[in-house]
Amino acid sequence: MSVGGIISAIIVGLIIGALGRLVVPGKQAIPIWLTIVIGIVAALVGTALAQAFGVADTKGIDWWELVFQVVLAALGVWLVARLYGRSRQG
Q1: How would residue 2 be classed by pLDDT, with cut points 50, 70 and 90?
Q2: Nearest to residue 41, comparing CAs of 10, 67, 84?
Q3: What are the domain boundaries of the chain?
Q4: CB of 65 closer than 8 Å to CB of 42
Q5: What are residue 55's phi and psi, to 5 degrees?
Q6: What pLDDT was estimated at residue 56?
Q7: What is the DSSP letter of 90?
Q8: Contacts (Cβ under 8 Å, ≥6 apart) of 14
Q9: pLDDT for the residue 12
């Protein structure tokens, strides 16, 4: 992977992670770097799911791919926030 690819993955991860974080109600006590990591993973897995369902390559914006990515990011943020909060409490 090139430097440009890594930078692109971080930017996409930041956006997808932030969107996922906005979907989850309440305050998430997790650091921004963890949100970015969750976003990157959600973007990669969401793209793979969209390809598996045959909706990754459409004309214009790939809305279904974006939906997969944001839903996965929201689930990831919710799960990690719960686990991270428990581990920090004791």
Answers
A1: confident
A2: 10
A3: 3-89
A4: no
A5: -120, 15
A6: 76
A7: -
A8: 35, 36, 39
A9: 85
**What distance in Å separates the CA atoms of residue 84 and residue 48, rounded to the nearest whole number?**
27
Residue 69 CA to chain centroid, in angstroms? Answer: 6
20-52 in b/e burial notation, b at 16+ Cβ within 10 A? bbeebeeebebeeebbbbbbbbbbbebbebbee
What pLDDT band is residue 61 in, cutting at 50, 70 and 90?
Answer: confident
Residue with tokens 């990157």: 40
Using DSSP's 3-state secondary structure scheme, residue 1 falls into coil
CA-based radius of gyration for the chain: 14
